Amino acid sequence: MNLPPLPDPDALLIVGEFCARLQIPKDTFYKWRQIPGATSVAHKLPNGSLRISGADFNDWLTGLRSEAA
């Protein structure tokens, strides 16, 4: 599988970008949000939309790799 490069740590991902990188449906992301630690930290903007920082995404994904090893 050819995965996209990790996002720039300063980037802010929208939920769709997060899901596209992991090849999961948005429903899965929202289910994971109900389980503490199951997904990357998301920041809620005043308009209600969510953003995931590239740094948080990278840290979360790296943590999954070390847990699986």
Instruction: Please give the number of β-strands.
Output: 3
Summed over residues and divided by their number, the pLDDT gives a mean of: 89
Dominant shape = globular
Provide the spatial order of strands within the biggest beta sheet.
1-3-2
Radius of gyration: 12 Å
The amount of helix comes to 40-55%
What are the secondary-structure elements, in order, as H or E? Answer: EHHEEH
Q: Structural class of the helix and strand makeup? A: alpha+beta
N-C termini distance: 19 Å
Write the layout of secondary structure elements.
Elements lengths: L11 E3 H8 L3 H7 L10 E2 L5 E4 H15 L1
Antiparallel strand pairs: 1-3, 2-3
Organism: Saccharothrix australiensis
Protein name: Helix-turn-helix protein
Detailed description of the structure:
The chain is an alpha+beta fold. It has one domain. 43% of the residues lie in helices and 13% in strands. The chain contains three helices and three strands; from the N terminus they run βααββα. It has helices at 15-22, 26-32, 54-68, and strands spanning 12-14, 43-44, 50-53. A three-stranded antiparallel beta sheet has the order 1-3-2. The radius of gyration is 12 Å and the shape is globular. It starts with 11 loop residues before the first strand and ends with a helix. The mean pLDDT is 89.
